[in-house]
Amino acid sequence: MNVYQIITERILEKPSQGAVPWRRTWKGPEPVQNLATRRPYRGVNVFLLGMQGFGSPYWLTLNQANHLGGKIRKGERGSVVVLWKWVEKADRETGEVAESVPLLRYYRVWNVEQTEGIEAPKAEVTDFEPIEAAEQILQEMPKRPEIVHRDPGKAWYDPWGDRVNLPRPETFERAEEFYCCAYHELVHSSGHKSRLDRPTLVQLARFGGHAYCKEELIAEMGAAFLCAVAGIEQATLENSAAYIDGWRRVIGTDPKLVVTAAAQAQKAADFILGRTFEEKGEAEE
């Protein structure tokens, strides 16, 4: 029995043992907010400020920066935020409220990274120490897609841009969880038309549909296989089993579904490990 079969059997055992619900293992970013008032920005302002590319979520007006004893660095440009509210308009003759009209205003704010003399709360992070065997798998994947950290707190694979986005390693509770998350997205990427050309990935599928769910099963099964090869499955398997069981329940409770997905996950894991089918066969003999 090879490592893939062992992990598949252990995953299938978990639901019957009452596996704990899946949990996200990294810390999400704080919402964009005003540093002085600590009020989160809302609506379109979230996008206006989020797209500026700063690492800190904290923003200030010029007056707020001065009030806090700091200043805006010379040459820094502010970002526009908008504020609108309903204003009651009174009738000139009677003085009674005649109508409510929207009032739109805009003003500029600066990210705390554009200031001097102002300290902002630092995001809580953990010390990240790479795990050699796990890191080797990550770095040596053939035809590996670009890996970025541009969308804080989110993990995804973009098949159109062939790009993986991961939360930064130091935001994970444990290094093992970072690699499991990275492997999940890399298994997705293995299905790209330039690699394994897997139908569940390359064909557009609606969220929650059968093909979408099966692709999620494949990705997490593949991640579990790679964690086992790296020797870190003890720290990640329970959470992976809960994730897999959650998607399995969406499209049916037939345990054969996981076995079917495992076959595709095995091909993905072999691709990421740079194994040919001949090499895999020799290793199992």
What can you see in these coordinates?
The structure is a single chain. By secondary structure, the chain is α/β, with parallel strands linked by helices. It has 2 domains: 3-27 and 127-284, no CATH class; 33-116, no CATH class. The chain is built from 10 helices and 9 strands. The chain has helices spanning 3-16, 44-50, 62-67, 132-139, 175-190, 199-202, 210-230, 233-251, 256-272, 277-284; strands spanning 33-34, 58-60, 71-72, 79-90, 97-111, 115-116, 146-148, 156-158, 163-165. Strands 1-2-5-4 form a 4-stranded mixed sheet. A 3-stranded mixed sheet has the order 7-9-8, covered by helices on one side. It has a two-stranded antiparallel sheet with strand order 3-6. Strand 4 and strand 5 form a beta hairpin. Helix 1 (3-16) crosses helix 8 (233-251), helix 5 crosses helix 7 and helix 5 packs across helix 9. The longest helix is centred in the C-terminal third of the chain and has 21 residues, at 210-230.
Order of helices and strands, N to C? HEHEHEEEEHEEEHHHHHH
Q: How many DSSP H or I helices?
A: 10
Radius of gyration: 25 Å
Number of domains: 2
Shape descriptor: elongated
Quote the distance from N terminus to C terminus. Answer: 10 Å
The major beta sheet can be summarized as: 4 strands, mixed
Low-confidence stretches: 278-285
**Main sheet strand line-up:** 1-2-5-4
The pLDDT mean sits at 85
Quickly give the structural class: alpha/beta
Helix fraction, binned, reads 40-55%
Strand content: 15-25%
Q: What's the count of strands?
A: 9
